[in-house]
Write a structure and sequence with these properties.
The chain is an alpha+beta fold and 293 residues long. Helix content is 62%, strand content 10%. The longest helix is centred in the N-terminal third of the chain and has 41 residues, at 66-106.
Length: 293
């Protein structure tokens, strides 16, 4: 089910839009009523919205004008990312940015916090926001903002993940919150954003590198051709000897992202149902290892 969903572009797009709804709803329901601020570009837009309300006496009722500002500021970022991320990802990002901005602007903000305990709201809001953002990224999309910059860095081979880049930018953003508002607003906003970034990094499967070892008695060239042609990865193989059977066996080694491992597992089962597959998650890969987004 998950394999078919993530490898069908229309189902993937629907799931990504669902992720934008989950993220926007979590922010509006759990974070905004507490007077806290999300991170990244949206957090910057929220600060602008607050300053407009405070110094220009602008009122937007139960809806948040920051969503419209967020969409406007994403336009130059999308133009900047066009060459690096490609036309397909930019178009998908545009769709998710539009839906996220609409959901964020239209989902009513409760007059009073749904959960009175601030820390609980931060944790729950951070987890739900991270899950939503992670779904969007795993589906090959982006909801815009700092995700675009983080994906560009990841695509160019930087060791800075999307979540880590977000944390670095937000350190500056929340320092501004400390001076503009008060310490409690900045501290609770940091707690919310930290959990959101951690969950997002774990959900973002393309951001997790894995090493796969395949042991097969079939022709290793069929699997090698699939890995090279379909996954765009290189593979190293050699001949070993099974200690129990004392028969020759082919061993293939490949590094790829967690997002691609299901496709590899599916191919291994199709080519050799008796193959032995070992997957090690979270390995550190340096050198010539392109990140495929």
């Amino acid at each position: 089910m998950i394999y078919n969903t993530l490898h069908n572009r229309w189902l993937r797009m629907i799931l990504a839009v669902g992720g934008t709804f989950l993220g926007a709803a979590a922010v509006n329901i759990f974070i905004v009523p507490l007077g806290l601020y999300t991170g990244g570009l949206l957090g910057f837009c929220q600060i602008l919205r607050t300053l407009f309300q405070k110094y220009l006496s602008l009122s937007f009722g139960a809806y948040d004008f920051a969503g419209i500002l967020y969409f406007i500021l994403n336009i130059p970022l999308l133009l900047f990312a066009y060459k690096t991320l490609g036309r397909g990802l930019v178009l998908r990002t545009l769709i998710c940015t539009v839906t996220y901005s609409l959901f964020y602007s239209l989902i009513p903000i409760p007059a009073k916090p749904v959960i009175s305990d601030t820390l609980t709201s931060c944790l729950l809001g951070g987890i739900l926001t991270g899950v939503g953002s992670g779904l969007v990224l795993t589906c090959g999309c982006s909801s815009g903002g700092l995700d675009i910059v983080g994906l560009c860095l990841s695509k160019r081979g930087s060791h800075i993940s999307v979540g880590r880049f977000s944390i670095g930018f937000n350190a500056i953003l929340y320092l501004a919150c400390l001076f503009l508002f008060n310490a409690s607003v900045a501290i609770y906003s940091i707690i919310y954003n930290f959990f959101g970034a951690m969950v997002m990094d774990r959900m973002h499967q393309q951001n997790i590198s894995v090493q796969a070892m395949i042991f097969t008695r079939e022709d290793e060239r069929a699997l090698s051709k699939f890995i090279i042609d379909q996954l765009g990865r290189s593979v190293t193989y050699w001949t070993g000897v099974g200690a129990y059977t004392e028969e020759n066996i082919h061993v293939l080694c490949v590094c790829l992202s967690k997002y691609e491992i299901d496709e590899l597992r599916h191919a291994v089962r199709s080519i050799d149902p008796h193959a032995f597959l070992v997957v090690q998650e979270g390995v550190q890969v340096d050198g010539n290892f392109p990140r495929q987004l």
